[in-house]
Amino acid sequence: MKLRRALLMALFISVFVWTSPAFCEFYKYDINTIARKAEARIKEIDKKIAEEKQKEEAQKEMEELRPMLEKAEALFNKGNYAEAKALYSKILETAKNPEVRKEARKAELKTKEAARKAKRKAKKEARKAKRKARKEKNNK
Fold first, then answer.
1. How many CA atoms within 13 Å lie on the side-chain side of 41?
2. For the segment 22-52, what is each residue's pLDDT rounded down to a tens digit?
3. Shortest CA distance to 71 belongs to which of 83, 53, 89, 61?
4. pLDDT in tens, 43-95
5. Where are the domains of the chain?
6. What pTM, to 2 d.p., does this model score?
7. Gyration radius (Cα) of the chain, Å
8. CA angle 27, 32, 38 (to 5 degrees)
9. Are 83 and 75 in contact (CB under 8 A)?
10. DSSP readout, the chain?
């Protein structure tokens, strides 16, 4: 009987605490905080998506520059100056775009870094080959 009374009392207290106005206010505050964080993340995601889209467009324009230059050169060599001038103007306009410049710089740095890594790897392999040759020479 005492156990039953204790359990009922515990149940009553827990129900009272969970449904009290103070607890509901806390829960409401928590929901508002969560909602604000979600809104902030959504804005951040929208910004990142816009940046990625802008990067992709800049990369696309940058990739189109070389073929456009080759076509302009061919037109110039054929004597088709008006069309060549139009292409050169478009190339110049694209090259002045700060986003395209930024992507071109990134691509250049990436290429240089890849070349450095390849050079380091080749030197490392050459040193390894020399060591191996010396070892074989000393073993004979």
1. 6
2. 555 555 567 888 888 999 999 999 999 998 9
3. 83
4. 999 999 998 998 888 888 888 888 888 998 998 999 989 998 998 898 888 88
5. 22-139
6. 0.47
7. 34
8. 125
9. yes
10. -HHHHHHHHHHHHHHHHHTSHHHHHHHHHHHHHHHHHHHHHHHHHHHHHHHHHHHHHHHHHHHHHHHHHHHHHHHHHHT-HHHHHHHHHHHHHHHH-HHHHHHHHHHHHHHHHHHHHHHHHHHHHHHHHHHHHHHHHHH-
Residues 87 and 69: their CA atoms lie apart, in Å, by 7
Indicate the length of the chain as a whole number.
Answer: 140
CA–CA separation, 113 vs 121, rounded Å?
A: 12
Cβ pair 68, 87 in contact under 8 A? yes
Contact yes or no for 74/29 (Cβ under 8 A): no
Structure tokens at 100: 């395209």
The token duo for 127 is 């040193």
